[in-house]
Batch of 2 targets.
Target 1
Amino acid sequence: MGRPFANLGNSEKHSRSTSSAPKSGMFAEIKNDLIAMAGEFIGTILFLLFALGAVQTANANTSANLTQSDDQSGTEPTGSDSNKLLTYYYISAAFGLSLFATASIFYRFTGSIFNPSVSLALCLIGAIKPVRFILVSLAQMVGAIVASAILDGLTPGPLAVNVGLGLGTNRTQGLFIEMFTTACLVLSVLMLAAEKHLLTPFAPLGFGFTLFIVMLFSTAFTGGAVNTARAFGPACIQGFQDYHWIYWLGPTLGALLATAFYVFLKEVHYWRITPGQDSTDVSESPSVQPVTSRMSRNSRDQVRADNAV
């Protein structure tokens, strides 16, 4: 390190350096928190702009088909169930790919993948401090509103990307669907990014695939929020349902559930259960010599028995 007070006397240099060091560290930490906040804000905008853009595209296309069908025959288009399944797949894939792309850019210095529930889990395990948790969560919520507003201005027609219960799903069912799907996503972040191992550099790919698979399940029933910011942003533009609270409570409970399971795994030293699981050293591969030797010995014994007969 340099000597910033080299021209001062020893006593004055000591007093000024000791008083300025904590301030320097504090300001550096605030600076890092603000950079992370800015990254989460921009990243959330990009993630949701492209993901929600796919939802808007799917819903606009469905509405156009329904309108055309009504003009022609006044009945529902043929194969509507298949079209719905394809739409669910399209939306789920769009969210997964958007998360993969944007997390690949931002997670290295923000780490929260644009989701307050993930931020909460990282705070609870000590990966980020409470101040950063508050800042990045605020950035995620505001970023979601901005992304929804931009999408509303860029696309024709009314915005149609809000989440909602479907297929007769009641509020309790929706709450627990959001809880379990969010828990799965949060756990993927904890095990792929918070835990350091050979797969950590590929964590964004794991995030994207996890979001894709949980949305394949939840999109038809809850709209597949899995993220309070994703539900909150569009609702600020389109309006809030009276059950909007499930998209706050469900993901929060999911984050707590995933965190509890992660802490349990750490307490039981999960890495000792299958040691060497991440190793690429060929010498740690299972030895098959005892098995082949036993098989050869059994074969020789069988030959001797046959000859004796």
Target 2
Amino acid sequence: MKKSILLIIYMLLFLACETGVRYDDNETIKKVSTQSAQSGVGNRSIEDLLEKNDERKEVFDDDLHPIMVANDEPKIIAEDIKIFSNDIKVNGLEVRNIREGIHNDYLRLVFDVFDSSKPAYSVGKYEASYNATKKYIKVILYDYKGFAAPIPSFPSSSIVEQIHFEQYPKEKGLKFHIQLRNETTVKVFDLKSPARLVFDINAI
């Protein structure tokens, strides 16, 4: 009898294991199609890429980093220029002679100005500028008709390197440059009766 009861119990257990647990058909189980899942992943990855691109634009935007642009600009060096001038206009003058005077602490250049065959009363209109950065003096003599003075040469020990004359057709005058070897202080002025244009050049 006992054997029969045990046999029935074993059979019931065996049938329970074969059948397994059954779920209710009404219980909701969400199924996601492969196509919709792939499209969702694709859309998400594109949005992520766009966000990353926007972040990169913000990081490397020139407007947010103006210093990067400014560094590409050439540097402008300010030049130290002094102007000397006289606005009294006289026509038909010319330079006949250039004299050099060496003093203890400066060098003087004197330009003798003539009117025809005699010394002029005034040097007329001129403009001289001294560029301390480039170490030269530029002079424009307005309405001068000519230049007859021999240009002096200067030794290597002189503070003056050379003098260069040229025509200045724009104002019907003359233009010349005095190139200097060293840094200097320059004073330009004119004297009357007889007319002289004077350059005092002092080495620093």
